[in-house]
Amino acid sequence: MNSGTVHWTRKDLLGLRELSVEEINLVLETADAFKQVGTREVKKVPALQGKTLINLFIEPSTRTRTSFELAAKRLSADIVNISAAASSLTKGETLKDTARVLEANHADIIVLRHSSAGAPQFLASRIASSVINAGDGAHEHPTQGLLDLYTIREKKGTVAGLHVAIIGDILFSRVARSNIFALLKMGARVTLVGPSTLVPREFEQLGVAVSHNLEEVLPTVDVVNLLRIQHERQRKEYFPGLGEYIRLFGLTKARARLLRPDCLIMHPGPINRGVELDSELADGAQSVILDQVTNGLAVRMAVLYLCGGIATR
Amino acid sequence: MSKTRPTNESDAVRIFDAETMQRALRRIAHEIIERNRDLSALVLVGIPARGVELARRIATDIEAIEKVNVATGVIDVSMHRDDIGTRAALPVVKVSQLPLPLDRRTVVIVDDVLFTGRTCRAAMDAISSFGRPACIQLAALVDRGHRELPIRPDFVGKNLPTARAERVRVRLENIDHEPDGVWLLKPEKNE
Q1: Nearest CB partner across the interface for A41, out of B49, B82, B129
Q2: Are A303 and A34 in contact (CB under 8 A)?
Q3: Which contiguous run of DSSP H or E holds residue A135?
């Protein structure tokens, strides 16, 4: 615990690719302290009292938005939710103008979910408010990557030296990218598993292994992170059908017997029960899916505290 | 309480060395015993990082004097501070550790230097979020004055009149890897 010497200097959290190991450790240690707040009689601290947070979700999301909202409330910030349908973006206003209007309303922190990769970066460089990326296209979802890391560290004690399989729709997944960057930095080994259309070999350039054979990988891993098959983003050519996908890459009960008994089963949600993950396994002893949700709250409190606590003006 | 500059500055006045600090802490231990008849209800709660070490030392002294176990704890104040966003560097948040429930407990907050009182206020707020202790008391190794809030210590190692621009430096061997000591530092001329 020598993090006393590390200082957070970022007003924004845009991705995990640019974070140092020390910065990631600082977020995780800060999250330890905020996780404890959830166990107190008063589950609220005044850390961001007087700050205003805007949840600007141009793409629909319930769990991430709710998690940020709860995190902000536990930090005593004031919060406003704006969804795409309710915003002036549908009237033709540009993202930059929307954000400048929010800034003129004294928003201190803008949490942005957007379907275009790079949208948070675009905003962050143009406004003084803190910008937190809550998922941008197929680019990054840094708080998800951090909460996955936090959960693995919590359950396994450390991340270094572990072998993590990320299974499924890697091509379209910002969760996969943030996980890959974070896990490799922290010294884990990562294998991506899925059909070649969704897990192209190009990913090897990031420093991960790629496999198209799930049964070969399962006995060797400490963690499986299953990604949701994103029906809404997919066209037919990526795989023939769900039946085919389940047959080859679904984590079924039969396949789960190949896992080590202490292997963690993770999923960022929402789960397609019976597609990427068998329903009983999702509720089973190896599943840490609900821990991920709880830890997500602590990690987001830490991120809001660190970025929002930096004087921006 | 600057953390960067060396302790051997020519204009540093030594307030405590290892031995006088130990005596002051032992006296605080005696005073805590005198004030609190039920030592089993006591918990010495340190403010990170040096307050935690001081709480541990005082607890050890009380245990040696009275042959009883004394509970200790840690209270993080960084998320309860009122100056977040106005400081250049954010305080690093630590996990608090308190024996729960607090209802019948007497909590003694332990810190190295008592100055404006704002840290103590933050500590009281933080403690309140865990429960409602029967009583909260305050122990400080050095009280340097300049309070900005209506807070006064119950147990003091040394009352040290200071000018506002002066600094008080505390070093504890287990934390700083330097010999125990307290110094008063005059403001630099260019300040």
Answers
A1: B129
A2: no
A3: strand A130-136
Tokens representing A144 are 């998800």
Query: Does A143 qualify as catalytic in the annotation?
Result: no
Cis ω for the linkage preceding B101 (within 30 of 0): yes
Q: Token digits for A100?
A: 């400048």
Residue B176 lies in a domain: no
Residues A96, A97, A98, A99, CA torsion sign: positive
Q: Give a yes or no: residue B88 inside a domain.
A: yes
The domain of B135 spans 19-161
SS3 A153: helix
The 10 Å Cβ neighbour count of residue A26 is 22
Q: Burial, A241: exposed, middle or buried (Cβ in 10 Å; 0-12, 13-18, 19+)?
A: exposed
**Residue B83 forms part of a structural domain:** yes
What is the number of other CB atoms lying within 10 angstroms of the CB of residue A250? 23
Measured CA to CA, the distance from residue B79 to residue B98 in angstroms comes to: 16
Per residue, what are the HEC states of B40-54?
HHEEEEECCCHHHHH
Name the one residue in this structure whose structure tokens are 């709480």.
Answer: B55
Which CATH number do you get for residue B64?
3.40.50.2020
φ, ψ of residue A15 in degrees (nearest 5):
-165, 170
Dihedral in degrees, nearest 10, Cα atoms B81, B87, B89, B95 = 0
The tens digit of pLDDT for each residue in B146-164 reads 999 999 999 999 999 999 9
Strand A78-83 with A189-193, pairing: unpaired
Active site annotation includes A113: yes
Predicted confidence (pLDDT) per residue in B63-92, tens digit: 999 999 999 999 999 989 877 666 667 778
Structural domains counted in chain B? 1
* Residue labelled with tokens 């959290």: A13
Mutate to test the interface with B, among A310, A312, A313 (most CBs of B within 10 A): A310
| Residue of B85, B95, B129 with shortest CB distance to A33 | B95
Tokens of B54: 């001081």
Give the ipTM: 0.79
Dist. CA B154–CA B156, nearest whole Å:
7
Q: How far off is chain B from A171, nearest CA to CA, in Å?
A: 37
Tokens 């995780």 found at:
A28
Reported as type and span, the H/E element at residue A299 is helix A289-309
Query: Omega before A46 cis (within 30°)?
Result: no
Q: Which of B125, B126, B134, B81 is nearest to B107 (CA)?
A: B134
Q: Which position has the token pair 């004030």?
A: B35
DSSP, collapsed to helix, strand or coil, labels residue B66 as helix
pTM score: 0.89
What is residue A313's predicted lDDT score, i.e. its pLDDT? 38
Residue B55 lies in a domain: yes
Alpha carbon A44 to its chain's center? 23
Mean pLDDT of chain A: 91
